[in-house]
Design brief:
single chain; alpha+beta; 5-stranded antiparallel β-sheet; 4-stranded antiparallel β-sheet; WD repeat; WD40_rpt; NOL10_2nd
């Protein structure tokens, strides 16, 4: 069982939890119940309350004893006896069920509309009769006074099948292209059908003529009406294909209220709860419960799987849902009404749970960020089943978190215990006579705030109507900043060094202004600028001074970073050996020779010629004609080569 609270309304999901296989032995079932918390919280209200694959629709008989559900695969109908809390019978069908209805007070008379245009009748013993309608049907309604079945579907006609005569009667010709849904008012037997164009046509079965039409598209952005339900003699709710629900009074063409689900999905079901004047509307994602008159949300239910149909057990706070899942959900909301008579023990159970509150869903999990995972050394678990991604982090099992936390820092509990003891001692000391002293953390900041507080207190005392502002030191919201070492200001950081000149100059200006206002308050004169230089000159000088300080700090930070990088480069060079490449045809003498050759390659032509001339390798001389004569001296050749 899962407990959730939406808008302070407790909702109990009685179908939540794991299902145990039938082939397990009793011994293994007991062992699983002792180990698994989900199985311990599981409540199997009705035995085998599920379908093989999907449940499409669900209804309760008028006497409240039987619950019938249609599903697939294979297509079938299941009947559950609430007095026995078990499955009564199961019948397989030839095709999927589009809609079905219970004509009697119990399960003895059933009508099924199939997807292949067949209408099948079942009696208490089983299949009774089958017939076919001209067009594919989508919904039908039974008119008790005349024993007529009205079928709507992919046609402009509303087909009539009389069960007393056993034959089709003249159909009702409408102006619509197709119909999606229909319903009959239980008070005055008015027939209403919702069309694919977003209109509702109302017919009187006595005269077989249309008596009115509502255009729902004028009041909402819709393409068609997918749900229709009467409440009393004058109220009608219309659910559209775009997720709006319109409440109408049959005497007016304008809706009394328009409620939007904000999902843009077709409305699947509309039900009324007369005791509290509530409306239960459902699309495939959510069930919303809201007030019929004001539209105020009472609560909401959001199952894990898509919803196909919703059924309320009469006179209680229990409702059933048919889902795109084998399990059919059972929800119990005590605020809507008491538990049914066949499961009255739920009231006692919920009262006990309210007295002893259980842990919520997230109590067994710990939310961690990527930085926390890196600190714990669990970054390799990202993408595995041990971490569940959520927003900017992950959910992990609280037991795994505590285990890894203990291994990463085994003395964390001792440190936490010492901090708590220290806090208790300091709280007891606070009751004694207080002596004004500096805190242990951020002493410079506290001293600065104390000086500024004294100046402000002195100024406010001299003013007649002045009131001193509360100090940061005495404010409880900033108390942790002077107690927790994690909030210590790092004065050597780049951010502080660049920001400190600006803050200090602002503080100096503030103190000057306070002193000036104090003098003016004493003299009780009008505000005048002091003699000498104007205030604009002083402010310009102050701005120039803190700009110079910021530039100086930037230069120092740059030099420190450059020296640090140079030191790191030297350390890397000292740790890693240097390699030199010897080209083909060269003879290695020493590392100095290689360095000298690299230096010559980078030098200019003039520098290379001067160096070779000094070494005696090249001789440059001027002639009378003005030309240049170069003489090369080769070491391995004895004669001279002259180039003119």
């Amino acid at each position: 069982m899962q407990i959730s609270s939406v808008n302070d309304v407790k909702i109990y999901n009685l179908s939540h939890g794991k299902s145990l296989p039938e082939w397990l032995s009793d011994r293994k079932k007991r062992a699983l119940q002792n180990k698994d918390v989900d199985i311990q919280r599981r409540i199997e209200l009705i035995q085998d309350f599920e379908m093989p694959t999907v449940c499409t629709s669900i209804k309760v008989s008028r006497d409240g004893q039987f619950i019938l559900a249609a599903g697939t695969y294979k297509p079938r109908i299941r009947c559950y006896d609430t007095y026995q809390l078990s499955l009564k019978f199961e019948r397989c069908l030839d095709s999927d069920v589009v809609a079905f209805d219970i004509l009697s007070d119990d399960y003895s008379k059933l009508v099924f509309l199939h997807c292949n245009r067949y209408v099948e009748f079942h009696s208490q013993h089983g299949h009774y009769y089958k017939t076919r309608i001209p067009k594919f049907g989508r919904d039908f309604a039974y008119h008790y006074p005349s024993c007529d079945l009205y079928f709507v579907g992919a046609s402009s006609e509303i087909f009539r099948l009389n069960l007393e005569q056993g034959r089709f009667l003249n159909s009702l010709q409408t102006d619509a292209v197709e119909h999606n849904v229909c319903d009959i008012n239980p008070v005055h037997q008015l027939l209403a059908s919702g069309t694919a164009e977003g209109k509702v046509e109302c017919w009187d079965p006595r005269v077989r003529s249309r008596v009115g039409m509502l255009d729902c598209a004028l009041s909402s952005v819709t393409e068609g009406t997918d749900a229709l339900k009467f409440n009393g003699s004058l109220t009608m709710a219309v659910g559209t294909s775009t997720g709006q629900v319109l409440i109408y009074d049959l005497r007016s063409s304008r809706p009394l209220l328009v409620k939007d689900h904000y999902y843009g999905l077709p409305i699947k079901s509309v039900n009324f709860q007369d005791h509290l004047d509530l409306v239960l509307t459902a699309d495939s994602k959510i069930i919303k419960i809201w007030n019929k008159d004001t539209g105020k949300v009472f609560s909401s239910i959001e199952p894990q799987t898509n919803i196909n149909d919703v059924c309320i057990y009469p006179g209680s706070g229990m409702l059933f849902t048919a889902n795109e899942d084998p399990k059919m959900n059972t929800f119990y909301i005590p605020a809507l009404g008491p538990a049914p008579r066949w499961c009255s023990f739920l009231d006692n159970l919920t009262e006990e749970l309210e007295e002893s509150p259980e842990s919520t869903v997230y109590d067994d999990y710990k939310f961690v960020t990527r930085k926390d995972l890196e600190n714990l050394g669990l970054s390799h678990l990202v993408g595995s089943s041990l971490l569940r991604a959520y927003m900017h982090g992950f959910f992990m099992d609280i037991r795994l978190y505590h285990k890894v936390k203990t291994m990463a820092n085994p003395f964390a509990y001792e440190e936490y215990r010492k901090d708590k003891i220290r806090q208790k001692i300091e709280e007891s000391r606070a009751q004694r006579v207080q002596i004004k002293k500096l805190p242990k953390v951020n002493k410079e900041l506290a001293l600065k705030l104390m000086e500024e507080g004294d100046d402000e207190a002195e100024l406010s005392a001299r003013k007649k109507k002045g009131k001193a502002l509360p100090s940061i030191l005495s404010d409880e919201r900033f108390q942790v900043m002077f107690e927790n070492p994690d909030y210590q200001v790092e004065e050597q950081s780049e951010e502080f060094r660049l920001l400190n000149p600006i803050v200090s100059k602002v503080g100096q200006k503030r103190r000057k202004k306070l002193r000036l206002l104090a003098k003016q308050a004493e003299a009780n004169q009008e505000e005048e600028e002091p003699e000498g230089r104007g205030s604009s000159d002083e402010s310009s000088d102050d701005d120039k001074s803190w700009v110079d300080e910021v530039r100086e700090q930037r230069r120092l930070i740059y030099e420190e970073g450059r020296d640090r990088r140079r030191q790191e480069r030297k350390q890397k060079q000292g740790q890693q050996p240097r390699f030199f490449q010897i080209k083909a045809g060269e003879e290695f003498r020493s590392f100095g020779d290689v360095a000298r050759k690299q230096k010559l390659q980078k030098a200019s032509l003039e520098e290379r010629l001067k160096l070779e001339e000094r070494s005696g390798t090249v001789n440059v001389a001027d002639t009378a004609v003005g030309s240049k004569q170069l003489t090369f001296t080769l070491k391995k050749v004895s004669h001279d080569d002259t180039i003119t």
